[in-house]
């Protein structure tokens, strides 16, 4: 009987999360997809390294750190662009996107320098 209660609780949780996410604006959903893509790319690189090997370890670290760094910056962009976030209400979305692009440029310059 405890399993059915836990299953019902899990189903209720997933239903409430799904209904709340349907109210999310489209631009935030696009950023969410970008974050998922970046993390998925990092996971593919880790699996590839585990299967094949990591001979140029600098390249492996650069690729994974690039993906994770990009995902972190995208999460920061999502926080700044979200209309419900009161902390960044005076920040225009264009400024948040410009910050995202500039930080990505700096991140990838550092990553390219790390490659050697």
From TrEMBL:
Parts forming coiled coils: none
Compartments in which it is found: Endoplasmic reticulum membrane
Membrane topology according to the record: Multi-pass membrane protein
GO biological processes: protein N-linked glycosylation
Pathway note: Protein modification; protein glycosylation
Keywords per UniProt: Apoptosis, Endoplasmic reticulum, Membrane, Transmembrane, Transmembrane helix
Gene Ontology CC terms, in alphabetical order: oligosaccharyltransferase complex
Membrane-spanning residues: 33-51, 57-77, 97-115
Domain of life: Eukaryota
Function: Subunit of the oligosaccharyl transferase (OST) complex that catalyzes the initial transfer of a defined glycan (Glc(3)Man(9)GlcNAc(2) in eukaryotes) from the lipid carrier dolichol-pyrophosphate to an asparagine residue within an Asn-X-Ser/Thr consensus motif in nascent polypeptide chains, the first step in protein N-glycosylation. N-glycosylation occurs cotranslationally and the complex associates with the Sec61 complex at the channel-forming translocon complex that mediates protein translocation across the endoplasmic reticulum (ER). All subunits are required for a maximal enzyme activity.
Family per record: Belongs to the DAD/OST2 family.
PANTHER family registered for this protein in UniProt: DOLICHYL-DIPHOSPHOOLIGOSACCHARIDE--PROTEIN GLYCOSYLTRANSFERASE SUBUNIT DAD1
Subunit details: Component of the oligosaccharyltransferase (OST) complex.
Listed name of the protein: Dolichyl-diphosphooligosaccharide--protein glycosyltransferase subunit DAD1
Protein's organism: Petunia hybrida
């Amino acid at each position: 009987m405890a399993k059915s209660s836990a299953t019902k609780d899990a189903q209720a949780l997933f239903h409430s999360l799904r209904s709340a996410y349907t109210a999310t604006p489209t631009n935030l959903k696009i950023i969410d997809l970008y974050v998922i893509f970046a993390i998925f790319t990092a996971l593919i690189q880790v699996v590839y390294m585990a299967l094949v090997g990591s001979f140029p370890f600098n390249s492996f670290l650069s690729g994974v750190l690039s993906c994770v760094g990009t995902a972190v910056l995208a999460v920061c962009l999502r926080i700044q662009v979200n209309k419900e976030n009161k902390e960044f209400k005076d920040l225009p979305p264009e400024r948040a996107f410009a910050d995202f692009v500039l930080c990505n440029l700096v991140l990838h310059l550092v990553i390219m320098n790390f490659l050697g």
